[in-house]
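Key idea: predict the complex, not the pieces.
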Amino acid sequence: MGRVLPIRFYARPAVVVARELLGARIVSSVDGLLTVGRIVETEAYTGPDDEASHAAARIGRTARNAAMFGPPGSAYVYRIYGVHWCLNVVTDTVDHPAAVLIRAIEPITGIDVMHERRGRGTIARCLIGRGPGNLARALGIDGILNGQSLRVAPLRLLRGDAIDDAAIATGPRIGVTRAMDLPLRFFIRGNPSVSGRRKQSRPPER
DNA sequence: GGTCGGATCATCT
DNA sequence: GATGATCCGACCG
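Result:
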């Protein structure tokens, strides 16, 4: 399959990286168990001026968001609602806090492992990696990976297939309470693993 | 189909 | 002391 994505891939604005991460592969070997997924949905958190970001200027640098100020190509993993882990990819430059939240993957390898980690009985394939908390759980991701490089085991990102612009849709980010109008969510149109809006098929225009 | 609330806790004020 | 880049099951229609 593809090569490990190089630093220069990440050393660009979060919006660009979010768009180009679609189709990339996440390879996890956490606990010696191989799981691979294809990224189908992302969100960009662009920098200090992004009011919805954990590293917005009004918040500044804190213990939680420190990884966002680190080198591009590393992970920012945080716990939300005391329950779920979320995986972000750090982008742009050191000291410019920006990241891309991975919102959904399509399972490719190790589906049985992912299934078992989810621990909810039988789940449809397309639901295993749908939603940031769900995909983190399926891949065995937790806070230990915060700040770690995404170019070495146990968590690596590989170049995937190029996705046609026509196959990509954008929209407002999910669940945020600020900057709600910005179209910083990117997803592969019609993909069943995409979270957020459940009705993907829009009724014909009248 | 849709809406609602509980879980659960680290983080920040 | 309040909040949150979520998920799931309950309930309603």
